[in-house]
Amino acid sequence: MTTETKRPAPVGRRRGPSSGGTVNFLALSVLAVLFLIPFYLILRNALSTDAEITAPGWMWFPVAPAWENIEKLFTDPSVPMARALLNSALVAILTTLGTLFLCATAGYGLARIPYRHANKVFYIVLATLMIPGAITFVPSFVMVSSLGWISDLRGLVIPTLFNGFVAFLCRQYFLSFPRELEEAARVDGLGYWGSFWRIVIPNSGNFLAAIAVITFVGSWNSFLWPLVIGRSPDSWTVQVALSTFLTAQTVSLSQLFLAALVAMLPLLFVFLFLQRFLVQGVAQTGLKG
Question: Are 88 and 223 in contact (CB under 8 A)?
Fold first, then answer.
């Protein structure tokens, strides 16, 4: 018997990183640096004095950071920064919760409850998206003023609760929600309301969290409506308080940048902890790119 000797398989050359991968890495690195430059400038200027900010020579970071700027920011009697942060938090949280409740119930009703005029109502909701906000701004202000809600939390929150676009997204999502779960709930004796709260809402966490993040960020960054409604300093939101550092009479650059940094931190934490829900929630709306 002859034994055949097995030749070792040829070893291929090891491939290094492709040129395309290197280019992508470099491009992403450049974009990341460009994205972080504004955050660096805000932090640098927040810990500098006005003289250092406006100095002709460039300084990468202050040699002696002006930590006392933080105390000045929160002890300035003309700008109640702590109260403004509290007002913004209350307005953003209440607006987010109210928008979720109203738009989720409206979207579920349009998607699931049989009604011969459901499509007409849906088209009316879509039509509101085509109306510029400038057209409804004055009537909304007149209504709030007639109710006595100027410089009041109700005037800041209630007119902004319903959002036609959020209602549209909720309807699209609930149309794709598995009907089998709702049918099983009806076998157990639950109606539309019971199915909505016990079955649909507990299984829509990712989508609702994504809507909550978008609504919270939009409410926190809102400026024009709080500026008009919040007449007294006690009703200012953080965006209105920021505008007081840059006026025709006075300009306080260090306080302006520090206040911007303080106002940005809550949004940064919200985005870092809940960013994964944004992608998952948009993917579950049923919208196709």
Answer: no
* CA pair distance 216, 160, nearest whole angstrom: 12
Alpha carbon distance 82, 74 (integer Å): 6
Identify the sign of the CA torsion 268, 269, 272, 278. negative
How does residue 287 score in pLDDT terms, banded at 50, 70 and 90? very low
Quote the pLDDT of residue 267.
85
**Token pair for residue 94?**
């209440």
Instruction: Give pTM, 2 decimals.
Output: 0.80
Reduce the secondary structure of the chain to three states and give it as a string: CCCCCCCCCCCCCCCCCCHHHHHHHHHHHHHHHHHHHHHHHHHHHHCCCHHHHCCCCCCCCCCCCCCHHHHHHHHCCCCCHHHHHHHHHHHHHHHHHHHHHHHHHHHHHHHHCCCCCHHHHHHHHHHHCCCCHHHHHHHHHHHHHHCCCCCCHHHHHHHHCCCHHHHHHHHHHHHCCCHHHHHHHHHCCCCHHHHHHHHHHHHCHHHHHHHHHHHHHHHHCCCHHHHHHCCCHHHCCHHHHHHCCECCCCECHHHHHHHHHHHHHHHHHHHHHHHHHHHHHHHCCCCCC
Separation of alpha carbons 112 and 171, rounded Å: 9
C-alpha span between 85 and 236 (Å, rounded): 9
Measured distance CA(32)–CA(41) in Å, rounded: 15
Q: Taking the C-alpha atoms of 260, 246, 90 and 276 in order, what is their torsion angle to the nearest 10 degrees?
A: -30
Tens digit of each residue's pLDDT (9 = 90 or more) over 59-101: 787 777 878 888 888 887 888 888 999 999 999 999 999 999 9
Contact predicate 99/166, CB 8 Å? yes
pLDDT in tens, 111-152: 888 888 888 888 888 888 888 888 888 888 999 999 888 888
